[in-house]
Design brief:
The complex is a heterodimer. By secondary structure, chain A is α/β, with parallel strands linked by helices. Chain A has three domains: 89 residues, Roll (Ubiquitin-like (UB roll)), CATH 3.10.20; 99 residues, 2-Layer Sandwich (Alpha-Beta Plaits), CATH 3.30.70.20; 230 residues, 3-Layer(aba) Sandwich (Rossmann fold), CATH 3.40.50. Chain A is built from 17 helices and 21 strands. In chain A, a hairpin with a 6-residue loop joins strand 8 and strand 9. The longest helix of chain A is centred in the first third of the chain and has 16 residues. Helix content of chain B is 44%, strand content 13%. The chains are: A alpha/beta, B alpha/beta. The structure holds flavin mononucleotide, iron/sulfur cluster (SF4) (3 copies) and FE2/S2 (inorganic) cluster. FE2/S2 (inorganic) cluster binds next to loops of chain A.
Amino acid sequence: MANIVIDGKSFTVKDGITIIEAIDQVKSELPRYCYHPGLSIAGNCRICQVEVDKMPGTVIACNTRVAEGMVIHTQSEKAKDSQKVVLEFLLANHPLDCPVCDQAGECKLQDYYMEYGVYDSHFDETKVKKTKKGVSVGPTIMLDQERCILCSRCVRFGDEITKTHDFGIFGRGDRAKIDIYPGKELDNKYSGNVADICPVGALTDKDFRFKMRVWYLGKQESVCPGCSRGCNISVEFEKSRPYHLKNDRVMRLKPRENKDVNQWWMCDEGRYAYKSIDQNRIKAIKASRMNPQWKDTLEEVAGILKKASLSAWGLIASPQNTNEELYLTKRLFLDTLKWKQAAFKAPGQDGFEDNFLIKKDKNPNTLGAEKILNLGANEDMTAIVEKAKRGELEGLFIFNHDLAKIFGAETLKVIRQKVKTIIYQGTNLNPTAEIADIVLPAVTYAEKDGTFTNFEGRVQRIRKAVEPFAGTLPDWDILLNLAGLLGLTLKYLRPEHIFDDLAKENSAFKEMNYKKLGNTGLIWSQ
Amino acid sequence: MEAILSRNFNISNAWKLSVAEERGAYQTAKKVLTSSKPEEVLAAVMASNLRGLGGAGFPTGKKWSFLPKNNPKPVYLVINADEGEPGTCKDRYILERDPHQMIEGIIISAFAINSHKAYVYIRGEYVRPYENLQAAVDEAYTKGYLGKNALGSGYAIDLVVHRGAGAYICGEETALLNSLEGGRGLPRLKPPFPAIVGLFGCPTIINNVETVACVPHIMKNGAEWFAALGIPGCGGTHLFSISGHVEKPGVYELPMGVSLKDIIYKNAGGILGGRQLKAVIPGGISAKILTAAEVDVKMDYDSLKNAGTMLGSAGIMVMDETTCMVKMLYYATKFFAHESCGQCSPCREGTGWAHKIVTRIYSGHGKIEDLDELLRIARNMERRTICVFADAAAWPILSYIGKFRTEFEQFITQGKAALLEPAGAH
Ligand SMILES: Cc1cc2nc3c(=O)[nH]c(=O)nc-3n(C[C@H](O)[C@H](O)[C@H](O)COP(=O)(O)O)c2cc1C
Ligand code: SF4
Ligand code: SF4
Ligand code: SF4
Ligand code: FES
């Protein structure tokens, strides 16, 4: 350990870390462009200048290591002047086209100019022209060479993280420019991250470009439901002008740092999957009566379930649901109604997997479902579906799964003919929802609170980013209401309370609570 | 003075092994490899006060001693033969006229640092020097002076000659390593230093051509002899390249600490056409300029540092009274703007920016404020970058304007016509 002083305050940090790491650890501030904790040190932007006692001039914080007794100044006149000088160079040839730049509002050139720069421009010469402005470099990303400050983050991302070696810096001196290698496309499974790490508007995300200015965005911390990795994300949504894009509320997803799960990254599939939050949603209840409302529909469902015989109904639960919802599912269907036939796992649905982030299990909570429902060998839904096909079932209660996608349209057709009552509870339209007798519109992960358990047993929180659409309810809320109607009175006001009971009852979640889960989650105790 | 490094420069075909051997080549190496210990070589080089002759003047023995002890990785010796500094052509003489002198130095140096593989990174434009060097290396291999059993000593030394592709920055030692590895010639961040993490991630010593060429002489005649050739703390002789407005430009071997005035007026025969001296750059384009009044200075690292400039590559550029300093600065900034590798923002943007301003002044559209602006840009480029290229780019600006400001001001206010160059000026 090393005792150091940063701007007059004393800290003890690990020996040999860089000054910038120390600054980040103690939550102090310092401008940086090329430094990224997930990439190798390039030290080329030179903005992170600090003054260190007994060292001449100023030094860069990202490649200077702390040593015992080091006294560091980030705000001294010398340090600030040095940072400002470097910023002036960075801006010398910059086109300053902020009014038409999509990065405006989250651009580090703008931010640092306001914080560290603010000088009158001295640059009176013709700026260097670079040719590629608003040019597509692949399915997801647009490139603007003039805005690039040549920090090489995108180059290092391709070299070190995806190993796809997409970008290079070509040419020397002020002719140096960023480009994709000739004949190449930026087309890998993590391409969107380069827009996140590009500190300026040189690489922008085609999907988000010109949709809206970032200062209109609200942000909520959540977890990607795209696979069992559970990448930590920020759900970014239209906050202040809901009339602007009408029904499109969620604008984009951004990865959120979690060293133990996804570091600083997320995959493209997860990143662009947010559209299903707003599109193709089930918004209307379907029940036997015309113009059904929640109250009468839930009463109808409760009536059906009361009469349902234990052995003639099948439950197909969902690993898309939260731990809290699966716990209620268990309490209601398995503990109270004592249904004998229950499953949650869909066969043959494994997708692409790599040895970085992407997992083949495309559900966010398979482990939670396994642990909470505890169905053992019966968790696979094939047996129930077979029974249904043979006409041995009277009714099915299906959460979220589309049987047509899993077993084919023909099977769904047979089931529809053979099974008298099908109740469907889910978020998005699909053939199974279409053929159901009763449809209960649930909400997506972006519209509710809860937790998922990822592939390694890490329990992580999702948080409500946007309000549910009118007429839709969170699964936990629907289940609570049904439970009440079926004589199981549960007094939970929020998912947090449900989780507290789950933690008491299920040893995997022992001693966990929302507060302890915090922003990065906790791993199961066994 | 007895010629040491240059003793074969005027012997025809000294680059051929037979001629070189007649003149004593490889005898010292053979003796050292068969009867000395590496530590003894290191001790001798330390005691000789040999300082790196590539520009920075770092004590060579001290540099070698930075290599990690008990390291499991191979150690590389890399010879910097990129010689890109404008005004410098000393290494060229060794490479082209007496390559065996350097190869012998490489053999002894490699032995001293326990390296079995050496590279010579030679400037791409050096065609003849390359041909002669490669021929010399081939001959040395054929004779068994290089290879598995170098000079019959049982010690293995491989030597590879690699040609650069014309970038000045590849003379900076870590850019050179990147280039040698097949990457772009971008200087590396330091630390780590090459002695710890160098070529292919292994401990590496980089030395200039002339530096290693000194080593056989030290081993042959003794460290004290070598130290006594120079001045305290800086032993030996140095090859000074002198160009510009002198009667006899060329490469002169003279002791460290020789007077600059003497080099110009005695060795190089004085100013061309008997004109007046105006200014001298003592150590390649990167060194700060000296006015005619400042040339009474000793040519060694410390004396020139005290005079506010540097010995650098010992490339002396002499300018007579007809020289236009604006034009000089125009060419200096053009060079640096062209050669900046472009990694660091102060260097990438600063070199281009400064050159644009100087070009504007030179083309008759200057403003008086441009001069202070140039000084401001230059000062801001200093000490904020990965390598010292940016500093080197700043120094001509700071020193030419600093010392010839009136001329710059006249050029701006009265135009080029006011300073019409006399006939015959270059
Ligand atoms: C921009 C730049 C260019 C350089 N060019 C050369 C060169 O052409 N030849 C050379 O020997 N050293 C050159 N150097 C110095 C080398 O980095 C290094 O200090 C030297 O090769 C070490 O050898 P020495 O210790 O034997 O002098 C250059 C340095 C810089 C910063
Ligand atoms: S495009 Fe962006 S990330 Fe890539 S080098 Fe330029 S500024 Fe850096
Ligand atoms: S790896 Fe999985 S969890 Fe992460 S972003 Fe992709 S789909 Fe989402
Ligand atoms: S100072 Fe200039 S030449 Fe040296 S690394 Fe930086 S940009 Fe390249
Ligand atoms: S952040 Fe340190 S040099 Fe770029």
